Please model this.
Amino acid sequence: MTRLKSPYLAAFFCYTLVGFFGPACAQEPQEPPTVEEIQAAESAPLFSSQEVLQITLQADFHTIRREDRSDKDSEERPAVMSWTNPDGSVETQDVQVQTRGIFRLSKRNCDFPPLRLNVKKGQVEGTLFDGQDKLKMVAPCKLGQDYWQQYVIAEYLVYRMFNVLAEESFRVRPIQVTFTDTSGEDDEFTRIGFLLEDNAALATRKGGWKVDWDTQYQFDPRLLEKHQAILVDVFQFMIGNTDWSGVQMHNVELIHSPPTTYHTVPYDFDFSGIIDTRYANPDESLGLRSVRERRFRGICPEDVFRSGEDYEAVFEEFRQKKEELYDLWRNQEGLDERRLERTLDYLDDFYEILDDPRRVQIRMMNHCRPLRGG
Model:
């Protein structure tokens, strides 16, 4: 097996940076993945297509919905998953399901909790799920009005948007999933959702490993790869998301690529303005009226050695990929026409800001976060 660069330089660099920001690394350095492991993660068949995958999931959902509502003691429960391959054949596999999340896990907020699938790697070799282990499943958390379905379609498209902009991004696969309650207490129902790539798989695919950051510390953003960091800042502004932090690693994954490179990869977009869920409210400290009102949350450029040219290079990438980003929404089956129009108007406003240096200064840079305490 072929190994990439040694982690020891990273370890030295890592542990010399302590103090206000806490340790630059929150775990022991690891051996980077082999070239073979990287190639296997990159070619995972589950994420090689954006065709809607038909899935049936059978489990005691009646008990899961009633009892597994704590992020501290939720347990894995047995389930049976069936899926339809591109050739029409159906395969079945025993899996484990477990509730996850925080806000959407609460009974007050959601009828149906978000789930994590635990697939047994050794039993899915040679199948569509080859190489998979743990997968987040995102589906509507309420079973009534259609707007709950629209939220999930919109969040799927936000992930796809970041796929267009960055290689360091979570891959997704759209699904039509039928939930069958084996207790017989709850009715069967079918919804559109998506599967989200595991963070460890993403890290392997990019030749590194995920860093389990302790949120009591602030990560020093000067250690982040500059281009990706700016891209994340601008993307979060684009979609109107303030529910994240690239310093405390809130709703972003921290990936370490040897020898000394760190990338942040965003996830969980349901509190963003572009999706505009009914339950989303901005942090009161920001003074925003609604999540539709954008607020730039990036670190001030002068504090992290980023120039105006660095930002303009990223702005130009957004301009060049504008039509590709818009087409994701225009071509999405099942998206409500009114939501489409409202979303494109929201994106138009972002691009109008981007093309006006004065508005960039007023709407973005004047609201940047200082390095210390940001």
